[in-house]
Amino acid sequence: MTVHKAELGRFFEDFVAGDVFQHPFGRTISEADCAWFTLLTCNTNQYHFNADLARQNPVSGGRILVNSGFTIALVLGLSVIDMSQNAVANLGMTDLRLKHPVYVGDTLYAESICTGTRASASRPGFGIVSMSTRGLNQDGDEVLSWDRSVMLPSRESGYGQDYFPTAKTGAMTLPA
C-alpha cells in the first residue's frame, strides 16, 4: 500500500527561469460575484452593478463591467496553486496592466512564467521567485498582466510540509 502524503504547491527549488505554468483552473464570473465584490469593497461605480446604466457605457458595449479589483484578485488566486501555494510572503507586485475589459459571463484563466530565482540573503532555507502572470478570457484575449515576487521555503526548510495530523486510530486499511 502506498500513502500519498498531503502536499500541495511548489517549493523554491522547483522553479526554473523560463518555465511557463498554465494554471489548471478557469473561473466563470457571475453577476453575483461582480455585485458582491463591488459592494464589499464599497466601490460605488454603477457600471459594475447597474445594467440600465451599463447600457450607456461606450466602453462596455452595454454590458456590466467586472470590477477590476475582482479581476486582479481572481487571476492572482488562479495562479496560487502553481506559483505561491507555499509562499510565506508576497514581496511585491509591479507593472499591473489592465488590457481588455472583463464582463459578467466571461471565464478567466491564468498563466505565469518564472522570470528568476535567487536564494534569500536574509532567511536561510528560503528563496525569492520572480514571475510574470497574465489573465486570459475564454477567447484568448489577455485581460491583464503583472510582475510579482514571493518568498518560498525550500523543501529542506521543512516549512509547509508534514502538516497532516496522525490519526489516533492508526493508518487506514482496506475493509475486511
UniProtKB/TrEMBL annotation:
Gene3D superfamilies: Hotdog Thioesterase. Pfam families: MC_hydratase. GO terms for molecular function: lyase activity. SUPFAM superfamilies: Thioesterase/thiol ester dehydrase-isomerase. Signal peptide: none annotated. PANTHER family: BETA-METHYLMALYL-COA DEHYDRATASE (PTHR43664:SF1), MONOAMINE OXIDASE-RELATED (PTHR43664). This is Transcription regulatory protein. It comes from Acrocarpospora pleiomorpha.
